[in-house]
Specification:
The complex is a heterotrimer of chains A (151), B (436) and C (516). Chain A has 151 residues and is of the alpha+beta class. Chain A contains 7 helices and 4 strands; from the N terminus they run ααααβααβββα. In chain C, a hairpin with a 4-residue loop joins strand 21 and strand 22. Chain C is of the alpha+beta class and 516 residues long. In chain C, helix 2 runs antiparallel to helix 3. Classes of the chains: A alpha+beta (151), B alpha/beta (436), C alpha+beta (516).
Chain lengths: 151, 436, 516
C-alpha cells in the first residue's frame, strides 16, 4: 500500500488540471511532474499513488517514468547541471566547456552534471541548464560567475 | 531578405504581455475569422499553400480537411511545441516574444476545425517558455478571450502539456500517445488518409509556427501569403542558423531565399574567416550538403532541397567550417539518435545503436574497410521498414555523410585519425537568387 | 459474415476471408511467415517488423499483421527482395542477442533459431559490443526472465494486460536499453502466469520448473486433456523414455483448441504432470502389505462371490469414459449399485471467468448423462446396508473424513486407485492402475465436449490399464482394449452411441445431448 500523498498545494494543482482532460490517463505526465516538484524525485510509492489517481495499473506509471529522461527515480544533488552535447553546441566548444565545468565543481557534492541532447538553444551555443534555467553563450567567465555563486 | 509576418513583434519590448501585444495589433484577425465559416477558413488556408513547419512540410489545409464534418465526437487541436530537432530553436521565439500570436492562431484554427479544446505540448526542458505562454494564457482567460466566459463567437480552452525529455514525442502520433499518458511510441500509420485520434476523438496536430501563421493568412488573405516564397513553397518561415557562423539566430525569410546568402549576408559568414565546408540545412535529420555548386545554388524551399538530395526540414541550418571533423560530427548525431530512439520497432532500436557503435569504432581506429559497407547496409535496412520516419532520417543522415565525405571515413580506418581534406572556396556562382 | 475472396500468394491462388488479418491467413494456409510480436490470442503489435511481405502495387514491403485481406491481392513472401528484407530484420534482432543457445532452455523451440535457418544463414558482421542486461531474474510463479535474450515483442506484457488483466509485466526504459520488468518489488502472480513461457518466442521467459531439466529434441509431444477440472483444457504431454529406462513426463504445454481453452492453460493444470511421474504407488496390496497379483485376483473373485448383493461400487467423476463403461458393465455382472458422490470434487475458490471451473472433476458430464447417482445421502444410506465397498479412485474413500472413516472400518474395502489410500491398513485389497497419462481414452468437459486423451507413457504389470485389470477380474468377460470397449460397452451408453474413439480427433466433438 502506497504511503505517498500530494500536499494540499500540489493536490490543488492536480485537481485543476484534472478538469482539463477528457480522461484521467492524460494526467500521467502532469502528475509525475507534480510528484517531482513535491519530492525532487519519483519513488515507487509515488508511482503507485499516481497510478491510483489516474486510474491505470502501476506498471504503466513505471513504464512512463523510465521512458522520459527528465524524471529522476532517485534523489539527486541539489544543483543539476545539464550540458548540451549535440552538434551545434559541440561545434561551438561544448567539450572544453564541460571540462571546465567539471574542473570547477570537482570536490563539491552539490552538483550533478549530465550531458544531454539538444536543448533547443543552438543559437546560444555552448549552453548549460542549471536546475532547468538556461544559460547560453557560455564562456569560462560566465561559468565562474554562475557556479561561483553556489560554491 | 527579412520579412516579418510571424516575427513582427519579436523586437518590441514586453510584446508578450496582453497590453503591449494588443497595442501592436494582437487578436485583430479574430474579427475577420469569425465573419467566415469554419469551412471558409479551411479553404483560405488551403489556398494560401501554407505547409507545416514542424519538419514535414505537409499542406496544412489538406490536413485540416481530414477532420470529419459530421459526428458527435469532440474535436481537438493539438499544437506541437516539442521542438527537439538539433539546430532548431524557432518555436521558442514565438513562445517567448509573441505568445498571444500563438493564442490567436489557436483560437482561429480551433474554430476552423470545430474544436473547443486545444493542448499545447511543449518539451519539458522549455520551462521558461512554458511559463511565458502560461502567463499569456492566464491573461487571455482574465480578459475573457479564452474559456467558458469568452465573449468571442467560438470558445476555446488552451492547456499546456509539459513533455519530459523525449525527442520522439515530436512525432505527431507519438505526441498523442504521450498526451494520452503513455510512452511516446509512434502509432502504425493508417492505410487511408484520416485525422489523428486522441482517445478515439478526431484531432489535428500542428506545429507552433504553423498555427502562429494562421492569423496573418486569415486576416490578409491567401494571396497576401503567396506574394512571398515560391509557387510550391509559398510564404515565409523562421529559419535558424547555428554552428560555425558569426550571427547565429532565428530570422524570418521567404521560402526560396539562397542558403549561401543566408549564411554569408545575414549570418555574417563563417566564423574566424574560415572556409565553409558543409551545411546541414534543416535540422539534424536532413542530409548534409557539401560546400560545392549544389550548396552555392540551393534555395531554402522544399523542392530545391529535394533536388540536391537533402530536405528543408525545420529550416534550422547548422554551419560547419573547414576544420570540422565530419566523422566526429556524424558520431555526434548518431549518438543523438541512439539516445532518442523509442525502441519500439526492431530496425530502429537495434540499428541506431549498431551504427553509433560502428562509427565509434571508426573513430577509435579499430574499424575495417568492410565496416563502411555494413554501415551503409544497416542504413538501408533502417529505411522504409519502420513504424515512423525516425529511422529513415538516420538512414538519410548516414548516407549523406558517406556520400560527401567518404574519404574522411576511409582515412580514419587507414590511419586512425582525422586527416584534413581540401575544401573548395565557394562563392555565389551564377544561380537564381531571390533576395527580394 | 464476410465474403470469401481470392488472393495470390507466391503465385498460388488461395481463398481467404475479406478483411481478415493477412498474417493469420498466411499462417492458416501453411505459408511460413516469420513473426514475433503477432499472436493469434493477443493480436498484432507491429513492432518486430519480421512479417514483412511484398504486396503488388505497394512501393514498400508491408507488415502482414497490420494488413487486411482484400480481393485480388498479389503477395510474395519468397522473392529475393523480401527474403533480403527478412534477413536484414533478423540480423538486427540478433545484433544484441546473447549467444546463450548452449545453456538456454529454449534451444530447439526458439524462433530466432528457426528463422535463422529459414531466412538467415549469414555470417555475423558484428564487430562491436552487445548491449547487456540482467539475466536469470526470478519473476515468481515459476517464471525466469532473461532481459538480454528478449526481442521486445511485448507478447508477455500484452498477455498480462489483456488476458489475465493483472498488469504485472511491461517494457521499461527506452531505445536499446528497453527491457521487460515488473514493478519494483512486485512478482508475476496470477493463475495463468506460466503461459508467458509458451508465448515468449525466445528464451527470455522460461519455466523455472523445467529449467535445465531436458532438451526439447529428446521429448515426444503427445496430445491429451488436462484432468485438473471440468474445463478439459487441451494439452501436450512432453515426455521422454530413454532406451532401457523408465519414461518421465517433463512438462505439460497448452494445445490450441479454439472451442475449449483457446491457447492457454492454468498453472495448476500445467504443473499437474508431477503426480503422473510418481511411481511410489504400484502393484497389489492387502492391508498395507504387498501380495502377488495372482493372490489379489483370486481374493477379489472370492469376495465378489461371497458378498454378492451386499456390494456397493463408488466411482470417481474423473474416471475416463472407457473406464466408466467397463465398471458399469462389471456392476451389472455382480449386480452392485454404482455411486459417484460429487463431494470432494467442487471448489468455489478454484473457478474463474477465464478457464478454471469450480468443478474439479474431469468427467462429471458423463456421470450425470448416464444417470449415475451423485447424491451423498443416497450413497451413505446404501453404504450402511452393504458389506463390500469397491472404490474406483474416488477421493472421498481414499481420504475419508472421521465419520465416513468410522463407517468404513466395519466394511470390506477394495480400492482401484492411481494413488495411495490414506487408510491402507483398512483396505482388504488395493489394486494400483495407471493414471491418465499412461492410457488412451476420452472424457467429456462441462460444456459437453467429448475429447480424446492419448497415452504418453506405457503401463506396466504393476500399474496396468484399468481396462486390462477389469478384463482379467471379470474372467475375460469385459473388453480388454480401447477398440473393443468402444465397439461393445460404449455403444450401450446413450451419449456415445454411434461414435468411435478414432473419430474424436484433436479438437474433440460437441455432444448433442445436454444432460447436465
Amino acid at each position: 500500500m502506497s504511503t505517498f500523498t500530494f500536499t494540499p498545494l500540489i493536490e490543488d494543482k492536480f485537481l485543476n488540471l484534472q478538469k482539463r482532460y477528457p480522461q484521467p490517463q492524460s494526467l500521467m505526465l502532469p502528475a509525475l511532474w507534480l510528484v517531482q516538484e513535491q519530492e525532487g524525485f519519483i519513488s515507487t510509492d509515488a508511482m503507485e499513488y499516481v497510478a491510483l489517481r489516474i486510474e491505470v495499473a502501476p506498471i504503466e506509471v513505471y513504464r512512463v517514468a523510465t521512458f522520459y529522461t527528465m524524471f529522476h527515480l532517485e534523489k539527486i544533488a541539489p544543483y543539476h547541471i545539464e550540458v548540451c552535447k549535440t552538434l551545434s553546441c559541440k561545434l561551438c566548444g561544448e567539450e572544453k566547456l564541460l571540462e571546465y565545468i567539471e574542473k570547477m565543481t570537482a570536490g563539491s557534492d552539490k552538483f550533478k552534471i549530465t550531458k544531454v541532447e539538444c536543448m533547443g538553444a543552438c543559437g546560444g551555443a555552448p549552453m548549460m541548464a542549471l536546475n532547468g534555467v538556461y544559460h547560453e553563450n557560455l564562456t569560462n567567465e560566465k561559468v565562474d560567475q554562475i557556479i561561483g555563486a553556489i560554491l | 531578405m527579412i520579412v516579418k509576418i510571424v516575427s513582427k513583434k519579436f523586437d518590441i519590448t514586453d510584446a508578450h504581455t496582453l497590453q503591449v501585444a494588443k497595442e501592436q495589433g494582437a487578436y485583430s484577425a479574430l474579427e475577420s475569422a469569425f465573419s467566415k465559416t469554419p469551412s471558409e477558413i479551411v479553404e483560405i488556408v488551403t489556398q494560401s499553400g501554407l505547409r507545416g513547419k514542424g519538419g514535414g512540410g505537409a499542406p496544412t489545409g489538406k490536413k485540416w480537411s481530414l477532420m470529419p464534418q459530421k459526428g458527435d465526437k469532440p474535436h481537438y487541436l493539438i499544437v506541437n511545441g516539442d521542438e527537439s530537432e538539433p539546430g532548431t530553436f524557432k518555436d521558442r521565439q514565438i513562445l517567448q516574444y509573441d505568445p498571444h500570436l500563438l493564442i490567436e492562431g489557436i483560437i482561429i484554427s480551433a474554430y476552423a476545425m470545430n474544436a473547443s479544446e486545444a493542448y499545447v505540448y511543449i518539451r519539458g526542458e522549455y520551462k521558461f517558455f512554458i511559463e511565458r505562454l502560461q502567463g499569456a494564457i492566464d491573461e487571455a482567460y482574465a480578459a475573457n478571450i479564452l474559456g467558458e466566459n469568452s465573449t468571442l463567437k467560438h470558445k476555446v480552452n488552451i492547456t499546456i502539456h509539459r513533455g519530459a525529455g523525449a525527442y520522439i514525442c515530436g512525432e505527431k502520433t507519438a505526441l498523442i500517445e504521450s498526451l494520452e499518458g503513455k510512452r511516446g511510441h509512434p502509432r502504425l500509420k493508417p492505410k487511408k488518409p484520416e485525422p489523428e485520434f486522441y482517445f478515439g476523438n478526431p484531432a489535428t496536430v500542428n506545429n507552433v509556427e504553423t498555427i502562429a501563421t494562421v492569423p496573418y493568412i486569415v486576416e490578409n488573405g491567401a494571396d497576401a501569403y503567396r506574394q512571398y516564397g515560391t509557387e510550391k513553397s509559398p510564404g515565409t518561415m523562421l529559419f535558424a542558423l547555428s554552428g560555425h557562423v558569426n550571427n547565429p539566430g532565428v530570422y524570418e525569410m521567404p521560402y526560396g531565399s539562397s542558403l549561401l546568402e543566408f549564411i554569408n549576408e545575414i549570418g555574417g559568414g563563417v566564423r574566424d574567416g574560415k572556409k565553409l565546408k558543409a551545411v546541414i540545412p534543416g535540422g539534424a535529420s536532413t542530409p548534409v550538403i557539401k560546400a560545392n555548386e549544389d550548396l552555392a545554388c540551393v534555395m531554402l524551399d522544399y523542392e530545391s532541397m529535394r533536388n540536391v538530395g537533402s530536405s528543408l526540414g525545420t529550416g534550422g541550418a547548422i554551419v560547419m567550417d573547414e576544420d570540422t571533423d565530419m566523422v566526429e560530427a556524424l558520431k555526434n548525431l548518431l549518438e543523438f539518435y541512439h539516445h532518442e530512439s523509442c525502441g519500439q520497432c526492431t530496425p530502429c532500436r537495434e540499428g541506431s545503436g549498431w551504427v553509433d557503435n560502428i562509427v565509434g569504432a571508426i573513430l577509435d581506429g579499430v574499424a575495417k574497410k568492410e565496416d563502411l559497407d555494413t554501415l551503409l547496409d544497416v542504413a538501408k535496412t533502417m529505411n522504409g521498414k519502420t513504424i515512423c520516419v525516425f529511422a529513415p532520417a538516420v538512414s538519410g543522415v548516414i548516407e549523406g555523410f558517406l556520400k560527401n565525405f567518404r574519404d574522411e571515413f576511409e582515412n580514419y580506418i587507414e590511419t586512425g585519425r582525422y586527416v584534413k581534406t581540401h575544401v573548395d572556396e565557394i562563392t555565389e556562382v551564377a544561380c537564381q537568387t531571390s533576395l527580394e | 459474415m464476410s465474403d470469401l475472396v481470392r488472393i495470390t500468394v507466391n503465385e498460388k491462388v488461395i481463398e481467404a476471408q475479406s478483411g481478415a488479418n493477412l498474417l493469420q491467413t498466411l499462417l492458416d494456409n501453411g505459408i511460413e511467415t516469420p513473426h514475433f510480436c503477432y499472436h493469434e490470442a493477443l493480436g498484432p503489435d507491429g513492432n518486430c517488423r519480421m512479417c514483412m511481405v511484398e504486396i503488388e502495387g505497394q512501393k514498400r514491403p508491408q507488415i502482414a499483421c497490420d494488413t487486411l485481406v482484400q480481393a485480388d491481392m498479389v503477395i510474395s513472401t519468397e522473392s529475393e527482395n523480401i527474403m533480403s528484407v527478412k534477413r536484414s530484420i533478423l540480423e538486427l534482432e540478433l545484433i544484441n542477442h546473447p549467444v546463450d543457445c548452449p545453456i538456454c532452455d529454449q534451444a530447439g523451440e526458439c524462433k530466432l533459431q528457426e528463422y535463422y535457418m529459414q531466412v538467415g544463414l549469414y555470417d555475423s558482421r558484428l564487430g562491436t559490443q552487445k548491449v547487456t542486461q540482467k539475466k536469470h531474474i526470478d519473476l515468481g510463479s515459476n517464471v525466469m526472465l532473461d532481459q538480454e535474450r528478449c526481442v521486445l515483442c511485448e507478447r508477455c506484457a500484452r498477455f498480462t494486460s489483456s488476458y489475465t488483466k493483472t498488469h504485472e509485466l511491461g517494457i521499461i526504459g527506452r531505445g536499446d536499453h528497453a527491457r521487460i520488468a515488473t514493478m519494483p518489488g512486485k512478482e508475476l502472480d496470477n493463475p495463468y502466469a506460466m503461459n508467458v513461457v509458451d508465448i515468449c518466442p525466445v528464451g527470455a521467459l522460461t519455466s523455472k520448473d523445467f529449467r535445465f531439466k531436458q532438451r526439447v529434441w529428446f521429448m515426444k509431444s503427445t496430445p491429451s486433456i488436462c484432468q485438473g477440472c471440468a474445463k478439459g483444457c487441451n494439452i501436450y504431454i512432453d515426455h521422454n523414455t530413454p532406451k532401457y529406462e523408465k519414461g518421465a513426463i517433463y512438462r505439460y504445454r497448452p494445445r490450441k483448441n479454439l472451442a475449449v481453452n483457446g491457447h492457454f492453460i492454468c498453472d495448476d493444470g500445467r504443473l499437474s504432470f508431477k503426480e503422473q511421474n510418481d511411481d511410489s504407488f504400484k502393484g497389489t496390496q492387502s492391508k498395507n502389505l504387498h501380495i502377488s497379483p495372482k493372490k489379489a485376483v483370486s481374493k477379489f473373485q472370492k469376495l465378489i462371490q461371497s458378498e454378492k448383493n451386499h456390494t456397493i461400487i463408488v466411482i470417481s467423476p474423473s474416471l475416463l469414459n472407457e473406464h466408466i463403461a467397463s465398471v458399469l458393465e462389471f456392476a451389472k455382472i455382480i449386480a452392485a449399485p454404482v455411486f459417484s458422490p460429487l463431494e470432494r470434487y467442487s471448489d468455489d475458490q478454484f473457478g474463474d471467468d477465464i478457464l478454471r471451473s469450480n468443478d474439479t472433476s474431469s468427467n462429471r458430464w458423463t456421470i450425470k448423462a448416464l444417470g449415475i447417482e451423485t447424491g451423498y445421502e443416497k450413497f451413505i444410506e446404501t453404504l450402511d446396508s452393504t458389506r463390500l465397498v469397491i472404490n474406483f479412485n474416488h477421493n472421498l474413500l481414499l481420504e475419508p473424513d472421521v465419520i465416513l472413516s468410522n463407517k468404513l472400518i466395519n466394511k470390506i474395502n477394495v480400492h482401484f486407485t492411481t494413488r495411495q489410500c490414506r487408510n491402507e491398513e483398512d483396505s482388504e485389497l488395493s489394486f494400483a492402475y495407471a493414471p491418465y497419462s499412461f492410457v488412451s481414452g476420452s472424457c467429456v468437459n462441462e460444456e459437453g465436449h467429448l475429447q480424446a486423451l492419448n497415452a504418453a507413457l506405457t503401463p506396466t504389470d504393476e500399474k496396468p490399464d484399468l481396462l486390462e485389470l477389469l478384463h482379467i477380474l471379470s474372467e475375460k468377460k469385459l473388453s480388454q482394449t480401447l477398440e473393443q470397449i468402444w465397439q461393445r460397452e460404449m455403444q450401450n451408453l446413450e451419449p456415445f452411441k454411434g461414435l468411435d474413439y478414432y473419430k474424436i480427433g484433436n479438437n474433440g466433438i460437441a455432444l448433442r445431448s445436454n444432460n447436465v
